[in-house]
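User: Fold this; tokens only.

Assistant: Input:
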Amino acid sequence: MSSLAIQLVLHVLRFTFTAYAILVIAHFALQTFFAHRHHRRFLRERGLPTEPFTPSVDVVVAAYNEDWQSLKACFDSLLAQEYAGTKTAASATRRTGRSRSAAARSS
């Protein structure tokens, strides 16, 4: 085979593989787009939430020999949070027992 024929074959192969790559990328993009549309319509038709998932946040307040006023302020600020996924747990220890009463007053 002459070098001209080899060059022609290489050129045709390069063009073919480039066209195939463009076709595969376009197919993937269209498939992703229509799958997303179908998924959103599926959720809408069944009345399921279409908003993204909101992860939960756990807040742990550990206190030892703290004043009940500062604990009450801390608990009140945690209860005033507007984030839907917040969970609060409190662990307070004091010899007089005033910390437990602060937790009870803030709820």
